[in-house]
Amino acid sequence: MANSIRRLAGQTAIYGVSTITMRLLNYLLVPVYTNYFSPEEFGVVSEMYSYVAILIVLLTHGMETAFFRFSQQEDQKKESIFSTSFSSVFTLAFIFLAVVVLFRQEFANLLRYPENTEYIVWFAIIIALDALMAIPFARLRAENRPIRFASIKLTGIGVNIFVVLFFIVACPWLLDNGSAATVAFINSIYNPEIGVGYVFISNLIASAVMATLLLPVIFRQKLEFSYPIWRKMLFYAFPLLIAGFAGIINEALDKILLKYLLPEDIAMSQLGIYGACYKVSVMMILFIQAYRFAAEPFFFSEYKNENAQILYARVMKVFVVTCLFIFLGIMLYMDIVQYFIGKDFREGLDIVPILLIAHIFLGIYLNLSIWYKLTGQTHFGATIAAVGAIITIGFNVWLIPVIGYHASAWAHLVCNMSITLISWKLGQKYYPVPYDIGKISLFMVSALAVYFLHGLIPEISRIVNWIISAVFLMIFATAVLATDAEARETLKPLLKKLKLPL
Q1: Residue 42 clears pLDDT 70, i.e. is over it
Q2: Spatial separation of the C-alpha atoms in residues 406 and 396, rounded to whole Å
Q3: pLDDT tens figures, 185-201
Q4: Helix (H) or strand (E) holding 394
Q5: How much is the pLDDT for 67?
Q6: Is 317 helix (H, G, I), strand (E, B) or coil?
């Protein structure tokens, strides 16, 4: 069983190389954005990408998970399953793109960007392309081809970063310092008035490059739509669509509501500060994302094994411990981490621990949610996510006018804790997994205790405080290994390489 967990860890690492590198490099652009743009301008970026997240869920309409499930169960129909799911997403994406482009001025007016209809068109294309790529990327994951998956993702990253740095950093510098010929060339391709729009143009170019690289995956064989398969997949996927939509509401709606619930003169700057501080929790988000990419096909592949439920329980514990290390790593070294964002954005750093804990509970929920996916009772996922969406909307609408973006951080935590508890209770009834709740709770309380005790240490010097932080991390690691035999067994190969006592 330890080998299975190590195999999952290996796949997580491979997917993580691409996913974490992609996200990390993109997140490393945040210092660029927060130093070159004002909080108000960065607020535009945060808001627009919230719409992207929500709309991609709608356009993929649960077909990604449906593809995993049906391709595992019906090997002889894999090509039809891929073709059908891709065709379904393609149809919705095409309709969406046509409608948005046709009514771009109306949408621009609705979003309060009447002079920037180009934003609407750019994002419509980005959303359509990203939705179309979901099923081909899922095929690569289902076929255990993480290297191909990673290479395409990393190519997109490189293109995005190059274009961002060229237009946002290099072009303004060249205009001030370049030769006459260089200045003339830059003026022919660069318009300072576009400003933050170059963030969106860079994304558009990167998405187009990745979509092109995925064409051989899409057209490996002739696409054939099967209505009977589509109907079965849609029946399975529709509750996942509701769950996914409600889930992304929990994650993204706050950035939209901040714009409309705060006074107009401060709304965009507050949104920019919140969006920047949200990205300080990057390492937690990255780990959960990489883990999800590997875990979903892994859980489906292990489903028929006799000890599957015991394995799921052990995976959960390892997952939580890893998240707690990330939490402590960020919070104990906040004096370094704060430089990730520009100084105009750091007033919001007090929300970071709240967001990190909220992300941990979201990760736990993603682990728990496997019960309704494996048993085909996806309507429960929709119901749970809907409850979470109600909590998120309620907290934000109630408290944003009172405490601003702090309301959004607390809404994340309350929502994720609530849906985690509900999913665990229902899961124990319909697909009982022997999660070690006592040990997991002990680890979480211990991590919080380490965090609060560390906060009592006075500022001596940076070097001394960094050493103290490392000691606190080692204390937590020692406590985990000393109290959990399964953790020692799983980490035995690493401990041997490090020549640490088992």
Answers
A1: yes
A2: 9
A3: 999 999 998 989 999 99
A4: helix 378-403
A5: 87
A6: helix
Task: Tell me the C-alpha distance between 481 and 172, whole Å.
Answer: 53
Half-sphere exposure of 132 (CA within 13 A, CB side): 25
Question: Domain range holding 179?
Answer: 2-497
Please state, in angstroms and as integers, the Cα–Cα distance from residue 109 to each residue in 112, 195, 460, following that order.
Answer: 5, 20, 54
Instruction: Answer for the pair 135, 88: CB distance below 8 angstroms, yes or no.
Output: no
Cβ partners under 8 Å of residue 476, min gap 6: 324, 325, 328, 446, 447, 450
> What is the DSSP code string of 21-83?
HHHHHHHTTHHHHHHHS-HHHHHHHHHHHHHHHHHHHHHHTTHHHHHHHHHHH-GGGHHHHHH
Question: How does pLDDT run across 93-131, given as a tens digit for each residue?
Answer: 999 999 999 999 999 999 989 999 999 999 999 999 999
- With contact defined as beta carbons under 8 Å apart, do 40 and 215 qualify? no
Q: C-alpha 57: how far from its chain's center? A: 13
Helices (H), 304-377: 308-332, 334-337, 352-368, 370-374
pLDDT band at 9; cut points 50, 70, 90:
low
Kindly state whether residue 502 falls inside one of the protein's structural domains.
Answer: no
Name the nearest CA neighbour of 61 among 98, 86, 82, 81.
86
Q: What is the pLDDT of residues 270-310, one digit of tens each?
A: 999 999 999 888 778 888 877 877 777 777 777 777 777 88
Closest to 219 measured CA to CA, from 277, 136, 289, 280: 136
What span, in angstroms and rounded, lies between the C-alpha atoms of 448 and 452? 6
Which residues, 6+ apart, have CB-to-CB distance to 500 below 8 Å? none
In 353-383, which positions are buried (b, 16+ CB within 10 angstroms) versus exposed (e)? bbbbbbbbbbbbbbbbbbbbbbeeebebbbb
User: Is 363 inside a domain boundary?
Assistant: yes
Closest CA to 282 of 23, 12, 22, 16: 23
Contacting residues for 251 by C-beta, under 8 A, at least 6 apart: 53, 362, 412
- Tokens 């143009």 appear where? 201
| Closest C-alpha among 247, 271, 264 to residue 407 | 271
Query: Are 389 and 250 spatial neighbours (Cβ–Cβ below 8 Å)?
Result: yes
How many domains are contained in the chain? 1
C-alpha 335/C-alpha 222 separation (Å) is: 55
d(CA 491, CA 314) in angstroms, rounded, equals: 12
For residue 159, how many C-alpha atoms fall within 13 Å in the half-sphere facing its CB?
A: 20
Within a domain: residue 433?
yes
> Is position 298 within any domain?
yes
Handedness of CA 78, 83, 89, 92 (dihedral sign): negative
Total number of residues shown for the chain:
502
